[in-house]
Amino acid sequence: MLEEERNHHPVWKFLGIVLATFIGAYLAFYFVVDTTFNRMMNPEYQLRKMEKMMHRQEKRLHRFEDKMLENPFEPKFAPTLVDLTKNSDEYKVVVNLKPLGNDEKNVNVKLDNNVLTVSGEMEKSGRRGERIMRFSQSFYLDARLEADKMTKEREGDKYIVTIPFEEE
Q1: Whole-number Cα distances in Å, 123 to 58, 81, 95, 99, 136
Q2: Whether residue 98 sits in one domain with residue 64
Q3: Which of 6, 18, 58, 165 could lock 143 by a disulfide, CB 3.0 to 4.6 Å apart?
Q4: What is the DSSP string of 9-49?
Q5: Number of domains in the chain
Q6: What is the pLDDT of residues 19-59, one digit of tens each?
């Protein structure tokens, strides 16, 4: 009995479990490394990886080109604020009030020696801080203007200035 007890000693069981665990871990590690290595050496995988890298570089190049082509002196707002049209007997100036807080008080229209100047300013506070928007646009009107008959009115989100003129 003494010899049977020695063969079934807990140390041998423990060593058997450790050895089996080590062999299992080694085989799992070998399988993962082998699979990864074979995948990386596959030409299709390398082509896909290269295409992704080229696509990222192309995007970066386009962003860089866009920034280089930007004119720093060009206004950054997208909407057209002032539109001038000449009809048969009047000039009509339409100012878009949406970017100006939809308030005609933010717009100033001045007529001086056939030069019409439309300017505006708006301050807006928000989460990202305070933003100030200013604009000024001048037009030379080539007809004999009747400045005393100039009208200003609001229609929805448009501020319309009408200046009649006489044909020469």
Answers
A1: 39, 16, 18, 11, 15
A2: no
A3: 165
A4: -HHHHHHHHHHHHHHHHHHHHHHHHHHHHHHHH-HHHHHHH
A5: 2
A6: 999 999 999 999 999 998 888 888 898 899 999 999 999 99
